[in-house]
Predict the structure of Abc transporter.
Amino acid sequence: MFAIETEGLTKTYGGTGGCREISLQVPRGALFGLLGPNGAGKSTLVKMLVSLIHPTEGQARILGKPLGDVEIRRKVGYLPENFRYHDWLTGADLLRLHAALYGLTPEESARRASEVLRLVGMEGWADRTVGSYSKGMQQRIGLACALLPKPELLFLDEPTSALDPLGRKEVRELLARLRDAGVTVFLNSHLLSELETVCDRIAIIKGGRLIYQGDWKELAAQA
Ligand code: ADP
Ligand code: ADP
């Protein structure tokens, strides 16, 4: 059973850009890396998979359901690239906002907030404003928001771009733990080094088209 299955998925912006004819299978429980240079179409693909934008053509199934199905709302976490909110909100405000987005009750929201803050190493920071956070902390709180509903499937768009080497390592360890706990993780990056140590499957996208998908070790053997 696949967590993500797409068939000819295409999104163009007035006929250009975007991504084209993406047919992709992500097995359940995989830590899947999508590698490609800036402008390759990684964000476009993920935005379609979380129903932020609609495909021009093609289809996809997410956790066995068609795109946009409300039943998967609480099962899918998403950290957009450049996660950014009003500076005057606190980390706790952001978590409450996302809890509402995911339909959590106030009790679940409070309990999950302290769990995810611990997971991303931000205990003690929830009552400070986002404006006082470093870029790396903003990415961490973004990751905490995406983890709130205990998602079965987690999409992360360049989640470590603002982190220093230690922060990157911590996030990679967290992703490996999530995968070990059964979460399917879909990770976008333009850096091979961000993917090679953690991902078990990989796809490469270039100019909007998939040019490789498969086992990470097979690719290394071909190279
Ligand atoms: P990546 O995430 O790999 O950097 P994107 O999905 O952001 O790539 O972009 C893929 C291509 O689509 C690029 O050529 C980009 O300029 C174009 N593109 C992305 N978003 C838009 C948009 N809203 N309008 C027009 N072109 C866009
Ligand atoms: P930004 O304002 O930074 O561009 P978005 O408006 O794209 O970010 O999304 C903000 C947050 O809302 C994301 O971090 C994500 O947790 C949540 N979110 C938005 N759309 C979805 C979706 N379709 N599925 C799950 N979570 C979503």
